Amino acid sequence: MEALNLITNMMNVKYHKSFECEINHTYFSDGVSSIFSLVPLKETARILKNYDILLEKQQHLFSFYTGLKAEDTFEIDTQFSGVSNLYFQLVADDPSFFSYTNVKARAESQVYYFSNENTTKEQQQLHDSNGVTAQDLISLKPQIFNVEIPSGEFHLQVKRSSGEVVIDEQMSKPQKLSYTVDLRSHENGRYELWLNDKIHEQFFMSNEQLPSNCIGVVQLNIDVLQKNYVSDLRYSIQFNSQSAYWRYKVVVADSRKINVVDMRITGVEDEIYEGPIDQEIIGGQAAQIFTSKTPMALHKNLEEHPQLIVSYANGFSNRTNELEIKLPNPGIENITMNNNEENEKSFFSSTIVYV
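Below the sequence we write its predicted C-alpha cells.
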C-alpha cells in the first residue's frame, strides 16, 4: 500500500523548468563542454530535496526543475518561500583546466566566487567582466579561524555581504595578538572582515571542505532571483581560453635529401610568424623555429590550420618545388611561461614538426 501511494504521488507531480545556468569556455567549440558540474553544498542539497527541486545537466547547461502538484501553477514569488540562498560547488573534471584557461589556479585558501546578487533582468552574468578573472577570487575560510591583530586600539568587525554585522569587537592591547573568529552559529556564505573601519578582505565561509577540483562557489540569492525573474531566466559564467605564442620547431629529415630554399608559415587569422631561427633541439637535431608575433587563443580543435610552405630543390633537378604541410594545433601539454623584466608573464606553446 505504501509503494502504491508513492507511485500515485509521483504521478500527481509535474516539473516546471524554473531557470537555467550555463557555463561556457571559449577553449571548446561554441564554448560547449561537459567538464563542469554544479554540486550543491550539504545544506543546499537538503533544501533542494525538501522543495522538490531537480537539477539536470546537459553538457554545459544546468536546468532547475521545480515539482508542482498537477493542479498548481508555478509562482516565483512563493515557490522558494523561506529560502535565502543556494550554494553550489563549481567543479571542473579536467586536471589540465588551468593550463588552457586564462585564470590562475586557485590556492587552497582561495576560491572563485560567482553570485547573482548584482544581476539585473537584462544582465544575468554571475561575474562583472566579460570572462572570469582574478578579481573573482576571494579568500576561503573555515568556521573558526585566527586574525593577527597589532597592538593598540583596534576595531574588528565581520559583516555579511548584506552589511549585517555578525561580530563587533573593540580591543585595546599592549601587544599584538591572534584573535579567533568563530562563525559556527552562522550559515555558509560570503562575509567581509573589517579592521579599524576599513575592509580587510572578503571571504567565503564554509563548514565543508571543498575538493581540489572545485574551481569556485556559485551563490544564488533567492530574493534577487525573484526580483529579477523572467520566464526564460538563464544565468551564465564564462571562462576564456589562455592566449599563448604559437611556436613551431620544424625539422627537415636527412632522409628527405632536399635543399631547402625558403620556408614560411601562413596563418589562419592573418597572424604573422617570425623566423625561421636556427636552433638545436633535444637529440641534437637542427630545427627552424617559427613563433607567432602576437599571442593567440588556444582551442581544443581548429577549424583551419596554419600552413607550412617549404620551397626546395633536390639533387635530381634544378627546379624549385613547393611542399605544403598542415601544421598541428598547438597543444597544452608543452606550455611554458616566461617572465620579462617587468615581471609580465608570457606563455608559449611549442610543437615539433617533422618534414
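The longest strand covers residues 13-25.
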